[in-house]
Specification:
Strand order of the largest sheet: 13-12-1-5-3-19-20
Mean pLDDT: 96
CATH architecture of the largest domain: Alpha-Beta Barrel
């Protein structure tokens, strides 16, 4: 996040009007609990890669209102002067618990829990949702593409199609978390250490008198990293012929090899096969074939079925925008309010849409693992203070089939959330981007069923409730007249 920018005011206006209302009514110290969760996986997939936590941490640490911010709010003639004075010294004072960045997560589970004075909890809402929704969406899409690519390299080429500068920079970060190997975005390399790669555009080839001269000039300048774009004029009649000529006449005499050729148009499957044969016959079996041009996981799977000869993919707009499903529906809902005795009074949102009814109270998210093979069986949500004893069978409620008697047996239970902020102070040391990326890979290899990783009709990961939470939910629904 650019340290020169103050993003505190990047919030929905109603957060400020509500905060002012709480202040005027003398409720500014009343503590509440909010949960951030989402309701469905994008692309009808089996899971989501949770991303964006580091940028949320930066935002909360930097929250402050400038004199210019306060002058603007005063100009709206809606805000109490005491509230504006309160904002002048505002610092976030709450506790934030979250799953770790890179965690494989599922719908309807509390990913982030904010326990804070009501104004503090309200004012972080927009930025919390913005950074988590965006990066989780892009990291998940990137992971789908990377898994489809198999052993092939995936490079993120999306900056010029992203919805703005931040979407390009942080979208590229999210792509790396999801498994992409490199980026075309230089600033992402500078800020996060994601390797920036790139060779030439068609304009380079067109600038020179002919294609051979363009390739020759590039090879002379970059003999150690020479990849040539061969589809400017005619791939088979000109592009690959000139690439081979440069490899033989310019690179090999100085002991260098042609690293790769790139295709950016045409029938990529057909051309990759023809180009591969041509390169192999010329003794360039080590020369890689890179393709780009509106690629996604569906096209990659199709390429594999057709026997394409592709070593690397440059993926742009369909990854950086998650074009096939571009909205991640994370929400931020009140779940409890501090009572007079310090306990938390559970709150529930009731809706005619059953899927929008929330789970009340302050809660704990657990992952249940099979002791035998280590794979995740289900997620379990309990009330705060409940323990899960994995030394004996544990009774739980399946909210979809609550009439069934269900038990976890021979299992291991793990709390997924860790404390990020405690009473306004950051107590969590963020992992490196490389550690986050590796964490994703390890979970998908060791903990997530292959059936959940299918692209079509993936296995649904179960999200269950403790008996106490389920009974509380039903009691509040009855009181609400439902």
């Amino acid at each position: 996040m650019n340290q020169e920018r103050n993003l505190t005011m990047l919030m929905d206006f109603y957060e400020l009007t509500m905060a002012n209302g709480y202040f005027v009514k003398g409720l500014k110290e009343k503590k509440v609990v909010f949960d951030m969760f989402y309701r469905k996986n994008p692309d009808k997939g089996g899971f989501v890669v949770f991303a964006g936590l580091e940028q949320l941490i930066e935002y909360i640490n930097q929250m402050h209102f400038t004199e210019g911010d306060i002058d603007y709010l005063r100009s709206r003639k809606m805000f109490d002067e005491g509230f504006l004075e309160y904002l002048r010294d505002f610092k976030f004072r709450g506790t934030v618990e979250s799953v770790k960045e890179g965690t494989i997560v599922y719908p309807d589970t509390p990913l982030i829990t904010v326990t804070a004075p009501i104004i503090d909890a309200q004012l972080v809402e927009t930025m919390l949702l913005l950074v988590i929704n965006h990066q989780s969406l892009i990291a998940t899409k990137a992971n789908r593409i990377v898994r489809a690519a198999g052993d092939a390299v995936v490079m993120e080429f999306g900056a010029r199609r992203a919805q703005g500068a931040d979407a390009a920079i942080y979208g590229s970060r999210a792509c790396y978390i999801g498994g992409a190997d490199a980026t075309a975005t230089t600033l992402t390399d500078q800020m996060f250490g994601v390797k920036a790669v790139g060779t030439m555009a068609h304009s380079w080839v067109m600038f020179f008198e002919n294609e051979y001269e363009a390739f020759k000039a590039y090879a002379e300048i970059y003999p150690d990293e020479c990849t040539l774009l061969i589809d400017t004029y005619n791939v088979m009649e000109s592009g690959v012929v000139n690439a081979i000529r440069v490899a033989k006449e310019v690179l090999e005499p100085i002991g260098k090899r042609l690293k790769g050729v790139r295709l950016d148009s045409g029938d990529l499957v057909y051309l990759s096969k023809k180009v591969r044969k041509k390169l192999d016959n010329a003794g360039l079996r080590d020369c890689k074939i890179i393709v780009s041009n509106s690629i996604d996981e569906y096209l990659i799977n199709s390429f594999h079925r057709q026997g394409a000869k592709i070593d690397s993919y440059g993926v742009g707009e369909r990854m950086i925008t998650s074009k096939s499903d571009p909205v991640f529906g994370g929400v931020y809902k009140l779940s409890a309010i501090e009572g007079a005795d310090g306990d938390y009074i559970p709150k529930i949102k009731v809706s005619e849409n059953v899927e929008k009814i929330t789970n009340p109270g302050k809660k704990i998210l657990w992952r249940i693992y099979d002791k035998k093979d280590g794979y995740g069986i289900a997620d379990l949500i309990t009330l705060d203070g409940e323990e899960v004893d994995d030394s004996k069978p544990y009774f739980f409620v399946d909210p979809v089939k609550p009439w069934k008697n269900r038990y976890f047996e021979n299992f291991r239970a793990k709390k997924l959330q860790v404390t990020i902020f405690k009473d306004g102070k950051q107590v969590y040391e963020s992992p490196t981007l490389e550690e986050i990326r590796n964490y994703v890979k390890e979970q998908l290899r060791d903990e997530v069923w292959d059936e959940e990783q299918r692209y079509e009709n993936p296995h649904i990961h179960y999200v269950d409730l403790s008996k106490s939470l389920y009974e509380l939910r039903e009691e509040l629904l009855r009181k609400a007249g439902h």
